[in-house]
Amino acid sequence: FWDFTSDLAKGDTAYTTMALAAHTDTTYFTDPCGLQIFHLLSHTDGTGGASLLVDGFYVASILKELHPDVYKLLSTIRVPTHAAGEPDSLYRPTPLAGYPIINRDPVTGELLLVRYNNDDRSVLNNIAAGDMEKWYDALRVWNTFLTSPDSEYWVQLTPGTVVAIDNHRVLHGRSAFDGKRRMCGAYIGFDEYRSKLAVLSEKFRTDSVSNAAAQLVDGRSVWSTDF
Predict the structure, then answer these.
(1) d(CA 141, CA 22)
(2) Are 75 and 58 in contact (CB under 8 A)?
(3) What is the DSSP string of 165-220?
(4) CA-CA distance, 131 to 54, in Å (whole number)?
(5) What pathway or pathways are given for this protein in its record (predicted)?
(6) Judging by beta carbons within 10 Å of its beta carbon (0-12, 13-18, 19+), is residue 57 exposed, middle or buried?
(7) Which domains are seen in the chain, by residue range?
(8) What percent of the chain has pLDDT over 70?
(9) H helices then E strands: how many in the chain?
């Protein structure tokens, strides 16, 4: 859980009043947070701070269709990341080479997650010299579609509003603001989320196969395909 205002209490752009471009959080973790919850508590003596949401899978699908070479490049070249805004912490993922912006299943090729935060990017020291300019060109194309009007969804939160997003898919940001703004929220691991979803889906399933299968072990159908 976290709670912050624009008081510069930490070396993090979230603790400022500046605009933040669309990004996913915790790209510097080996396993980025799964669900992210935002709860606007208050905003007084000022305006601005509209919330930005972008479906990363939508942007990736456009790249795959219109720019397959860019899609391939952004899903293969690893991007090192880190967080070092505090003197007593230095977060880097394993492996240190990081992960691509577009992450796919190595077997099926299915799109799994998008991890992109330009402010957390480290030195690109693992890219072959001949691929460096190609990667930056690909990043420009990615940013063009990421910031296009049809990709961006803007909403002005009001105090008391709670928003939950899939941090593996949805990028978020905000416009600049002034005044006193207080936001709290939480990170939820994706494994915990999927575990709860699987258990509840099994519990409330209404298909004929589950209804017909009366064999239960610890309350779970022996015919379950969720594990």
Answers:
(1) 15
(2) no
(3) EETTTEEEEE--B-SEEEEEEEEE-HHHHHHHHHHHHHHT---HHHHH---EETTE
(4) 28
(5) Amine and polyamine biosynthesis; carnitine biosynthesis
(6) middle
(7) 2-190 (3.60.130.10)
(8) 91
(9) 5, 12
